[in-house]
Design brief:
The structure holds 2 protein chains of 2 kinds. By secondary structure, chain A is of the alpha/beta class. Chain A is built from 24 helices and 21 strands. Among the domains of chain A are: 260 residues, Metallo-dependent phosphatases (Purple Acid Phosphatase, chain A, domain 2, 4-Layer Sandwich), CATH 3.60.21; 92 residues, Recoverin, domain 1. By secondary structure, chain B is mainly alpha-helical. Chain B folds into 2 domains: 108 residues, Recoverin, domain 1 (Orthogonal Bundle), CATH 1.10.238.10; 64 residues, Recoverin, domain 1, CATH 1.10.238. In chain B, strand 4 and strand 5 form a beta hairpin. The longest helix of chain B is centred in the N-terminal third of the chain and has 19 residues. Classes of the chains: A alpha/beta, B mainly alpha. At the A-B interface, helix 1, helix 16, helix 18, helix 19 and strand 16 of A face helix 1, helix 2, helix 5, helix 7 and helix 8 of B. Chain A: It comes from Otus sunia (Oriental scops-owl).
C-alpha cells in the first residue's frame, strides 16, 4: 500500500493478463483430459457392444446347429446335454446331494445347514473375504433350495415401504464382489429392517460371480420377504458362455461344474422379472418398449425362457432357416432406422410380431419372448419414440413419451433400471422419471467409474450413494486415472486392430495405389472404420495408433509394429493365425460346450470338426492341411488331445513393447 | 516420440503446449482447399460425436467448451460465450445442434482463431505472478489471483488445479514442475 501507484497499476494489469492466460490454459488441459476420458470410455463401450452383437450371431449359429444337425455325429450331440436332465427334474432333494457328494474333513470352508440362518450368511461373507470357495455340495443344495423358493414367487414382486424405513436398490454387479461387500459395509446387511432389491446382472465379467450369487441366494433364503432379485440379461446361460461366468464355474468347480451350471440355468429362468414398490415405482433390469404389457408379463410362464438369445422353438420352426452367411456390417448407431437383414438377429419393437409372408396367426411364444427381451435389454433415450436398439441388437430405445404413456397406463411414478454403464454410478433421465443405477465400480478399468445404489424412503424420494473400490492405497488424481483408463482402452483397441490385420492391410492398399506405404489421414480413418466398424473418433486417436511421415501422411503399417500374435509355431499360415485370434472368444464358447467334462482337454478330431462347421457358417475358407499341421504342432505330448486353454492363449495378441504407464 | 512435424499438431496425444513455428493447421498438399475443408469438417464432427451421448447430433451446451478445446483451440471464456451466441437456438434449449455448430466451427479452424498458448508464454505468465522470482507461488497468492482476477476459477476448478499442482508440505506451487508434468502427460 502506498507504493508508486502507476507501477502497482501496471503490475496489476500484467497480473490480470497472466491470470487469464493461466486460466485459459488450465481449462484447455481440463477439456483435453475430459475428451480423452470420453473417448476411452467410448472405446470400451464400442468394443463391448460390438461383442454383444457378435454374441447374437453366435447364438444364431447354435440355434442352427441344434435345429438342423440331424446326423448323429459328435458335434450335434455336443450341444444337447443328455444325462444331466435328471438334475432339472423335481426329484432331487437336499439329502440326495448330501448322500451323493462327500465333503472331506480337509475342507475348512463354510458348512451350510438348511434352513439357513444369519450365521451361515456371515460364515459365507467371511469365507469369501478370505477368498475361500464354498464346497460344491453346498452350492448345489443352495441352488436347489433357491429354485424351490423362487418358484413360489410371481413374475412381478410387489413391495411396500410401509413397514420399513428405506428400501435399497442396487444395479449391475457383474461379478465384482468387492462392490457388494462395500455396499453391505456402508449400508448394512439385508434384514427385515433393511430390505434390498438387486436389479439383475449379478454375473459375468468380474471374477466372483459365483460368490455374489451364493451370497444373494443365501440372503434370499433367510429373508425371502426382504431380499428381492430381478433377472438381468446376463442371467442367461448363453451370455455366460461368452462373458466369463461359465468359465469361472468350470474352473472353480472341476468335478461338479457342469451340474452347477445346469441347475443355474433353471434357477435363472425362475428369477422374477420385475419389482413394483407401493404400486408406484417399477424396477426392472433394462427398460420398456411401447408394447410393454405388465399384466401380460405377470401372467406368462417365465421359466420357459432359459435364454433370450434364441427365439422360442415354435418361432424358429416357422421362420426360414437357410444356412446364411452372417452379414459383416455392424448395425450403425449413427444411422437412424436402418433396415436390418436377418430376422433372428433383431426384433423390431414397433414392427409386426409376425415374420413377413406368414399367414399364420401371431405366435404367443413370440410375444412372450419379445416382452421379456424388451424389459431386459432396452435403453432410455432423450428422443421421443421407440426404435430398435441398434447397439445391442435386442430390445429398443425408448423415449420420454413411451415412459409417460406407460406411467399413465399403470399409474406409476418412477422407473428404476440398470443395464447401462454410467460414469457416476447413476443417471436420471426423462425429466426425473427414469433412473439408471449401476453398482459395479471400475467396470472397464481401475478408475473408470463409480458405482452407486439408491435409498428409497417411504415418500419414494430417491437418495443416491456413490462409491468406488480402489486397489491403490493412494487415490489417483484425475490425471492419473484418465491415463490408466486411456492406456487400457487403447490396448483393447490395438488388439482388435491386430486381429484384423489382413483386412486392414487390404483396405489401406486400396488407397495406396502406388504402394508407397503412405496414405492420407482421411483415407486412413475411412479404412479403419470400414473394417472395424466401431464408430470411433479415428482422427483424434490417430496419434496413438499410427505414425506420421514428414509430409503429413499416415505410415499405415506402423499400426502393427508393436504388436504380434503369440504363435505356437512359425510355419503356420498367418491368415489362419489371425482368424483364430479374432474368433478366440467364440471358439472358447464352442469349446466349453464340447469339453463335456470340463477337463480343459478336447480331442483333435472334435476340434477339427467343430472348427470346420464354425468356419463354414462364417463363410471362411480354411484348408485342412494347415489346420491339421497347426493342431499337431500344439499337441506337444502327442496324446491325441489338446489343452485348448493353452491353444487359445497362443492366439492372444501380445504387446511387444508394454507402454510405460507405470514407470 | 517422433520429431516430425505433423499436419495437425493440435490434437490430443501430442504436445499442444510447445510446437514448431509452422504448425497450426498446415494442409495436406495433395488434398487442395475443398478437400481441406471436408477434412476439417470431419474432424469437427468426430469431436462433436465424442460428446454426443445419444448419437442424435446434439450435445449439452455445457460441453461446447470441451469440444472447441479438443480441436486444439484456446478460447477464453468470453470468446466461448460469443461462439455460443452464434450456435445457440433462438430459444435456448440447453442443447446445441451439429447443424449449427459445424459451419461456425469450420470457420474458426480455417481462420485459426483462438491460437494455442506456447509453453514459454505460459511460463512467463506464472513468473509474472511470482513477484520474488523464487520459482514458486504460495497457495494463497495463486488462489487469490486465479479466483479473483481475469476469468475467475470456480471453487471446483481451483481445487482441481491444486490437487495436481500443490506441494502439500510447503503449500506452494512450483510452476516449472507443474507445467512440465502436464506436458509430459500429453505425449
Amino acid at each position: 500500500m502506498g507504493c508508486n501507484s502507476s507501477v502497482a497499476y501496471r503490475r496489476s494489469e500484467k497480473a490480470i493478463r497472466a491470470a487469464i492466460l493461466i486460466q485459459n490454459w488450465y481449462r484447455f488441459t481440463k477439456a483435453r483430459l475430459e475428451t480423452r476420458r470420453r473417448y476411452s470410455l467410448s472405446i470400451f463401450q464400442s468394443i463391448e457392444y460390438a461383442d454383444e452383437q457378435d454374441q447374437l450371431q453366435l447364438a444364431n449359429f447354435f440355434t442352427f446347429m441344434l435345429d438342423h444337425c440331424t446326423h448323429p455325429d459328435s458335434v450335434s450331440q455336443i450341444l444337447t446335454s443328455p444325462g444331466i436332465s435328471q438334475v432339472v427334474d423335481e426329484g432331487l432333494s437336499l439329502t440326495e446331494f448330501e448322500n451323493k457328494i462327500d465333503v472331506p474333513d480337509s475342507y475348512y470352508g463354510p458348512r451350510l445347514s438348511f434352513p439357513l440362518t444369519v450365521e451361515d450368511a456371515n460364515a459365507l461373507l467371511h469365507a469369501f473375504r478370505n477368498e475361500q470357495l464354498l464346497h460344491a455340495r453346498y452350492v448345489l443344495q443352495l441352488l436347489c433350495e433357491t429354485r424351490r423358493v423362487l418358484k413360489e414367487m410371481p413374475n412381478i414382486t410387489h413391495l411396500s415401504t410401509s413397514y420399513s424405513k428405506e428400501i435399497t436398490v442396487c444395479g449391475d454387479l457383474h461379478g465384482n464382489l468387492d462392490d457388494l461387500l462395500l455396499i453391505f459395509y456402508k449400508n448394512g446387511l439385508p434384514s427385515e429392517q433393511n430390505p434390498y432389491v438387486f436389479n439383475g446382472d449379478f454375473v459375468d465379467r468380474g471374477k466372483n460371480s459365483m460368490e455374489i450369487l451364493i451370497i444373494l441366494f443365501a440372503f434370499l433364503l433367510i429373508y425371502p420377504n426382504d431380499l428381492h432379485l430381478n433377472r438381468g440379461n446376463h442371467e442367461d446361460y448363453i451370455m455366460n458362455l461368452r462373458y466369463g461366468f461359465t468359465k469361472e464355474v468350470s474352473k472353480k468347480y472341476k468335478d461338479h461344474g457342469k451340474l452347477i451350471l445346469c441347475l443355474l440355468r433353471d434357477v435363472f429362468s425362475w428369477l422374477p422379472l420385475a419389482t413394483i414398490i407401493d404400486s408406484k415405482v417399477l424396477i426392472l433390469h433394462g427398460g420398456i418398449s411401447d408394447t410393454t404389457d405388465l399384466d401380460f408379463l405377470n401372467a406368462l410362464e417365465r421359466s420357459k425362457l432359459k435364454s433370450l438369445m434364441r427365439p422360442p422353438k415354435s418361432v424358429r420352426d416357422r421362420q426360414d432357416q437357410p444356412k446364411e452367411r452372417i452379414p459383416t456390417t455392424r448395425l450403425s448407431k449413427h444411422i437412424a432406422n436402418q433396415n436390418v437383414a436377418g430376422k433372428t438377429q433383431h426384433i423390431s419393437s414397433s414392427g409386426s410380431t409376425e415374420p413377413s409372408g406368414s399367414n399364420l396367426p401371431p405366435d404367443p411364444a413370440l410375444k412372450e419372448w419379445k416382452q421379456i427381451l424388451d424389459i431386459l435389454w432396452s435403453d432410455p433415450r432423450s428422443q421421443n419414440g421407440c426404435t430398435p436398439n441398434k447397439s445391442r441388437g435386442g430390445g429398443c430405445y425408448f423415449g420420454p413419451d413411451v415412459t409417460a404413456k406407460l406411467f399413465e397406463r399403470y399409474n406409476l411414478k418412477m422407473l428404476i433400471r440398470s443395464h447401462e454403464f454410467k460414469p457416476e454410478g447413476y443417471e436420471i433421465s426423462h425429466d426425473g422419471k427414469v433412473i439408471t443405477i449401476f453398482s459395479a465400480s471400475n467396470y472397464y478399468e481401475e478408475g473408470s467409474n463409480r458405482g452407486a445404489y439408491i435409498k428409497l424412503n417411504p415418500e419414494l424420494i430417491p437418495r443416491f450413494v456413490q462409491y468406488q473400490v480402489s486397489k491403490y492405497t493412494r487415490r489417483q488424481n484425475l490425471q492419473e486415472r484418465v491415463g490408466t483408463i486411456e492406456s487400457s482402452a487403447l490396448k483393447s483397441l490395438r488388439e482388435k486392430i491386430y486381429a484384423h490385420r489382413s483386412e486392414l492391410t487390404s483396405a489401406f492398399a486400396q488407397y495406396d495405389l502406388n504402394s508407397t506405404g503412405r496414405i492420407s489421414v482421411s483415407d486412413w480413418a475411412a479404412a479403419m472404420e470400414s473394417v472395424l466398424q466401431l464408430e470411433l473418433p479415428w482422427r483424434m486417436l490417430r496419434a496413438q495408433l499410427v505414425q506420421m511421415t514428414p509430409n503429413g501422411e499416415a505410415d499405415y503399417m506402423s499400426c502393427f509394429y508393436d504388436l504380434k500374435i503369440g504363435q505356437p509355431t512359425k510355419e503356420v499360415q498367418p491368415a489362419l493365425v489371425e482368424t483364430l485370434c479374432r474368433y478366440r472368444r467364440d471358439l472358447e464358447i464352442i469349446f466349453n460346450i464340447i469339453d463335456k467334462d470340463h477337463s480343459g482337454l478336447i480331442s483333435l478330431e472334435e476340434f477339427g470338426q467343430t472348427w470346420k462347421l464354425f468356419a463354414s457358417h462364417l463363410g471362411i475358407d480354411v484348408y485342412d492341411e494347415s489346420l491339421d499341421k497347426l493342431i499337431l504342432s500344439i499337441d506337444y505330448n502327442k496324446d491325441g488331445h489338446i489343452d485348448f486353454n493353452e491353444f487359445l492363449e497362443a492366439f492372444h495378441v501380445v504387446h511387444r513393447l508394454e507402454k510405460k504407464a507405470n514407470s | 516420440v517422433s520429431s516430425v512435424i505433423t499436419w495437425d499438431s493440435s490434437y490430443p496425444g501430442e504436445k499442444a503446449v510447445s510446437f514448431p513455428e509452422s504448425a497450426g493447421h498446415s494442409l495436406d498438399p495433395q488434398i487442395g482447399i475443398d478437400g481441406a475443408v471436408a477434412e476439417i469438417e470431419k474432424k469437427i464432427i468426430e469431436a462433436f460425436e465424442v460428446f454426443d451421448h445419444e448419437c442424435n447430433k446434439t450435445v449439452d451446451v455445457r460441453e461446447i467448451g470441451s469440444i472447441v478445446r479438443s480441436l486444439g483451440c484456446f478460447p477464453t471464456e468470453a470468446e466461448l460465450h460469443e461462439l455460443l451466441a452464434e450456435v445457440e437456438e433462438e430459444e435456448p434449449t440447453g442443447y446445441i445442434n451439429l447443424e449449427k455448430f459445424l459451419p461456425v466451427m469450420t470457420k474458426v479452424l480455417l481462420h485459426r482463431s483462438y491460437q494455442p498458448i506456447p509453453e514459454d508464454v505460459l511460463l512467463h505468465a506464472f513468473e509474472a505472478l511470482d513477484e520474488n522470482k523464487c520459482g514458486y507461488i504460495t497457495k494463497e497468492e495463486l488462489v487469490k489471483y486465479l479466483t479473483e482476477e481475469g476469468e475467475p476459477f470456480t471453487q471446483e476448478e481451483m481445487e482441481d488445479m491444486l490437487s495436481t499442482a500443490l506441494d502439500p508440505e510447503t503449500n506452494t506451487v512450483h510452476y516449472r514442475d507443474y507445467i512440465s508434468m502436464l506436458v509430459v502427460d500429453e505425449t
